[in-house]
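Hey, resending since the last one bounced:
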Amino acid sequence: MLALIFKFSYDKMGLMKFYPFARRRTKAGDKHRERGKELFSFMNRRRSIWRLLPVRLLTLALAVLLLCTACGSDGSDSEEACGALTWSTWGNYNRFKKFIEVLGKSCPDIDVEFISYMGSNPTGYSWLQMRADDIPDIFVTSQILDQELAKERLVDLSSYLFINNLPNSVLDQVSLDGGIYLLPVNYSMYGIFYNKTLMEEKGWEVPSDFAELSVLCDEIREEGLIPGVVGTRLTGGPFSAVFNLAKTGWLTTPEGAAWEREFLAGNASAQGRWESTMDYVQSYIDIGMFYTDPQDRNSPELIFDYLGNRKAVFCTVVQPVSITEFPDTGDKLGMMPYIGEDGSKNVYMYNPSFYIGISKRLMEPGNEKKLENAIRILSLIYSEEGQAAFVDETTPSVMSILKSSDLPKDSLIYDAQQALRQGRAFPMTYVGWEQVLSDMGQAYKEWFRGENSMDGESCIARMDELWNAWMNRSEEVNFCESTADFTLEETAELLGKALGSAAGTDVVLVPIGGFHEGNVELASGVTGKLYKGSINSDVTASLCPATDGAYAVMTMTGAQIEELVQTGFDAAGDGNPFPYLLVTKEGETLQTDRSYQVAFFGKGYTEETAEAYSAQTFEGSLQSFLREWLEQQGTVSPGGNPWE
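The structure tokens again:
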């Protein structure tokens, strides 16, 4: 019996769009996978044929195929076809891979269909889906951007037994009006890393307040070492360094929380509130704790070079690590809290790897079995076996969320775990600050480096300036309007028009992403849909592939273009190609012998294609092209906005 599911929808002409899709399976019966893969490949290359069939004929074909796929001798495949749970990969299937293996062994009767998203804004896209009420059954996101919307769209998990496995300190963070709609799967813990072996050799102890830290930094400098290095390659690093020090004082008090709410609402100022924090940050700069790397290398390189090679003792970066000792020297790594001025509030930060929830759609009649299976999945995630699939020896700064999970005292994050349970750990600042976080971090970076006469007072003024500018630019935020929800193919066509218009070509071949058997995803393909409503930079970022910054132009005949469309884009070289969507200027029908200029997304073609058609590569951001094109359009609709 062939195990494929068939999706269908109606286009604007009343014709049925009908095609099979592959999914990651967890059940028995996968001996037919290769047969299904062959049919998927055949259908994927000939989807246009199916779209032209009359609705009645397709309905009959659908009925026959469903009978063929659903009628097994034991009835198990019938349950598969109607009970598959959708689950977004959220840009990285590998984060779920080990757990899916555990799920397959523990619950072999549960079938999961992964929906690939490989765009450049996974968090933003997850909430665009939420607002459009188009989320998968298993919803994943990195931040809780809208608690009220989550309450509206997701199942309240507070009454299920697995909740009892989590400590109140975790549940209190995500509770809304007594309900729980999104749960963190685990916590990455953040503090200040240090070379523990070096500290022990020198007889240096972890300081308990700023006075002790200052004395220690003097001793470190006398040894010819740098006290501390701070990560600045990504401006989120300096932003976090400043805000984390603020959390050792006023920012984590009720007054601080009230100020943050008022500031983000445009009703408060940084001036008159942040002066004490900026003075304290300057103290860290003065004692050498915020040295910046001249090469501006990434956080792992800073840790390995400065701490591993004993150039510095401390390293302030927002970076989960994969080691507890340096392989070349055997020096062990430690992590201490952010040190407060008087030592009464030395704190750690934490951030969930991701949050997970269940679509409220599963509470509708007819979805009882799917809801049961979804709850079984979450019950497994919040068991010791499930947590072990996300937290192991390769994630020493990541903590299991279970209250039964006690770390050994010599663990890298033992003290951080105790701090979390005792209320001495706080969430990283992100939500609400997204629009100005990068620019604020840049100002702090210049301060750390002594550039552009930036100091604490200037940074406070910059905070107010940036937020006021953001609050007053409402007309600039939204630069286009979508009149309706787009399908994935319609969204890809929109991106193709934007690229073709900017590149000045005749044709664009747009790869359509997805999830293929073999756990293959396509980073250079379109995997996000445009929804009805206002369009801003967050929306365009969610639509474009993460492989942005370049595109290619090739010269091909109409026949060669058609052949490539039929062949598809074999990105992984496994004979399982992703489809190309053909987009032509003014909707022109290709002529077999005529030559055309064809544009491709960056990394949206094989090396063989590039060599065969002498690809010329050009720098250029698809996000920028899309924004410029959308601004010109004003409004966009599926099937509208011809590329002229």
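The chain has a mean pLDDT of 87.

Sorry for the duplicate.
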